[in-house]
Amino acid sequence: MDSSIVPLYEILTLNTRLFLNCLEGVDDGTARKRPTDDTNSIGFLACHVLHARYFLAGNIGLDLVNPFQELFDAAHDVNDLEVPPLDELRAVWSDVSAQLIGHLPALTGERLSGASEVEFPVDDGTLLGCVAFLAEHESFHIGQMALLRKYFGLDGMAYTGRE
Fold it and tell me: Is the pTM of this model over 0.85?
């Protein structure tokens, strides 16, 4: 594995587990609750992070189909999205994550240093910069999911546990 991707590989591997840990013990009803009209739900955030992970997978060369793509395309904001059952989200997350994590070691330094096809709000316009931004993006939202767990009276997100 190219040494430049190793830290991001570790973050994405950790986020794979933390995403599932954030959903541990959350039922479908709680996943749809929003503390305020201006706040996202755990379910919406899970859908958003899942969607972004598929986006990342596509950017690194995987040709995967998000089974919820039509659902996400039809939603213009949090109020429009019908959150799928969490069991389905977990299964799809595990599948895309295994493929993404499995593909990262194949990325060469030359590929990683090439230009990203998408611009992100970071100075590094390479594919490595794309992976770094999207890893940070999902970390940010996983943190929001962890906070919402506590808001709804669940135990804090654990760093250990699910793989």
Answer: yes
Answer for the pair 47, 23: CB distance below 8 angstroms, yes or no. no
Per-residue model confidence as pLDDT tens digits over 35-80: 999 999 999 999 999 999 999 999 999 999 999 999 888 887 777 7
Q: Are 50 and 96 contacting, i.e. CB atoms less than 8 angstroms apart?
A: yes
Please state, in angstroms and rounded to a whole number, the distance separating the CA atoms of residues 38 and 42. Answer: 13
SS (H, E, C) the chain: CCCCCHHHHHHHHHHHHHHHHHHCCCCHHHHHCCCCCCCCCHHHHHHHHHHHHHHHHHHCCCCCCCCCHHHHHHCCCCCCCCCCCHHHHHHHHHHHHHHHHHHHHHCCHHHHCCECCCCCCCCCCEHHHHHHHHHHHHHHHHHHHHHHHHHCCCCCCCCCCCC
**What's the pLDDT tens digit per position in 127-143?**
999 999 999 999 999 99
Q: Is the pLDDT of residue 87 over 80?
A: yes
- Cβ-contact 163, 157 below 8 angstroms: no
CATH entry 1.10.540.10 includes domain 6-151: no
